[in-house]
């Protein structure tokens, strides 16, 4: 069958963003309530709604051709799948934490300590590399409660804002890995599915580029055009249009969102005025 099957999380932290990404890629899905499988109306894709833990296994077996999940689950499940794109959402840390009143020295603090986690494989690998012996207590969830009920000395879990740690009287002492949502694929995709995936990937990259870049317009004295163009190279080169007022031009370009605030001060110092920053809908190089 010439359809690409994509596994996404049924409900949880990744579900909404995963479906939003497909929507931004122009893929129309019928919102069949509680259906665990749905086909798109305008793209040869079928979405399977699964527990995120099961996605690596299904993709390895080829039951789903591709899947969206946190890279943390990919590492933990350690299946034979290819990570093909970083999707840039659900960013989080995987950290070690201990009761807040404990004195932490360095990673050797954990020597012979008992650590509760839902990620025993990642944790064991980390401490093996450190050549530190620990006892790992694998639990399914609510990990942060473990030290408080005498189950473990410390924990290893996902941290984002840190508020769950705080609420449970814990402090983060070491970041082991940084994770975010990724697209994974079966390593032996049939030719037809590979072609559909290439089309989807092209759209995903355009959406992600648009989300991480902004369109910038500004007015500048002609004497500053060279310096500003060097700072804002854009996709090929900036557009420069003369203003009605002599000696001035309008410069249009693209700027990376995370560089924007650094660049803006430099632009102002070069005499730029009337700076407008506009979201980009799609970006195709
Ligand atoms: N606080 C957070 N901030 C950002 N990303 C997070 C956070 N917590 C989890 N994630 C990411 O979202 C993924 C899914 O988290 P969620 O809590 O929904 O998983 P789950 O409880 O294992 O769900 P499931 O029922 O599908 O097994 C995690 O594997 C991680 O990649
Ligand atoms: O640092 P924070 O912003 O507080 O986020 C961290 C918490 O988020 C996740 O749990 P989630 O809320 O998804 O609940 P779950 O354990 O039921 O999956 C994770 O397991 C942590 O407990
Ligand atoms: Mg899960």
Automatic annotation (TrEMBL):
Principal location class: cytoplasm
Taxonomic source organism: Ferruginibacter yonginensis
Gene Ontology molecular function: any one: ATP phosphoribosyltransferase activity
Family to which the UniProt record says this protein belongs: Belongs to the ATP phosphoribosyltransferase family. Long subfamily.
The keyword Magnesium belongs to this UniProt entry's keyword annotation: yes
Alphabetical list of PROSITE patterns matching this protein: ATP_P_PHORIBOSYLTR
InterPro entries: ATP-PRT_HisG_long, ATP_PRibTrfase_cat, ATP_PRibTrfase_CS, ATP_PRibTrfase_HisG, HisG_C, N-reg_PII-like_a/b, N-reg_PII/ATP_PRibTrfase_C
Transferase in keyword set: yes
Pathway participation: Amino-acid biosynthesis; L-histidine biosynthesis; L-histidine from 5-phospho-alpha-D-ribose 1-diphosphate: step 1/9
Protein's UniProt name: ATP phosphoribosyltransferase
Catalyzed reactions per annotation: 1-(5-phospho-beta-D-ribosyl)-ATP + diphosphate = 5-phospho-alpha-D-ribose 1-diphosphate + ATP
Control of this protein's activity: Feedback inhibited by histidine.
SUPFAM superfamilies, sorted: GlnB-like, Periplasmic binding protein-like II
Protein's cellular compartments: Cytoplasm
Histidine biosynthesis HisG C-terminal domain location: 210-282
Gene, per the UniProt record: hisG
Entry-linked PANTHER family: ATP PHOSPHORIBOSYLTRANSFERASE, ATP PHOSPHORIBOSYLTRANSFERASE ATP-PRTASE
Ranges for domain ATP phosphoribosyltransferase catalytic: 51-205
Keywords: Amino-acid biosynthesis, ATP-binding, Cytoplasm, Glycosyltransferase, Histidine biosynthesis, Magnesium, Metal-binding, Nucleotide-binding, Transferase
EC number: 2.4.2.17
Stored Pfam families: HisG (PF01634), HisG_C (PF08029)
């Amino acid at each position: 069958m010439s359809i690409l099957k994509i596994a996404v999380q049924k409900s949880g932290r990744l579900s909404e963003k995963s479906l939003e990404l497909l929507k931004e890629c122009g893929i129309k899905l019928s919102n069949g309530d509680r259906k665990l499988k749905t086909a798109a109306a305008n793209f040869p894709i079928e979405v399977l709604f699964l527990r995120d833990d099961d996605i690596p296994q299904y993709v390895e077996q080829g039951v789903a051709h591709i899947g969206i999940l946190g890279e943390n689950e990919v590492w933990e499940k350690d299946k034979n799948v290819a990570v093909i794109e970083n999707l840039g959402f659900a960013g989080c840390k995987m950290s070690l934490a201990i009761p807040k009143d404990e004195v932490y020295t360095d990673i050797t603090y954990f020597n012979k300590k008992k650590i509760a986690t839902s990620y025993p494989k990642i944790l064991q690998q980390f401490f093996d590399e450190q050549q530190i012996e620990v006892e790992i207590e694998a639990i399914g969830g609510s990990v942060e409660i473990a030290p408080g009920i005498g189950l473990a000395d410390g924990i290893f879990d996902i941290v984002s804002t840190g508020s769950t740690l705080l609420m449970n009287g814990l402090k983060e002492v070491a970041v082991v890995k940084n994770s975010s949502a990724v697209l994974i694929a079966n390593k032996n995709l049939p030719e037809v599915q590979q072609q559909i995936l290439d089309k989807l990937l092209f759209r995903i990259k355009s959406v992600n580029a648009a989300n991480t870049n902004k369109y910038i317009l500004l007015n500048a004295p002609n004497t500053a055009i060279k310096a500003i163009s060097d700072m804002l190279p854009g996709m090929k080169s900036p557009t420069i249009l003369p203003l009605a007022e002599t000696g001035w031009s309008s410069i249009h370009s693209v700027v990376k969102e995370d560089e924007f605030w650094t660049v803006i001060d430099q632009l102002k110092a070069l005499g730029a005025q009337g700076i407008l920053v506009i979201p980009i809908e799609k970006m195709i190089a």
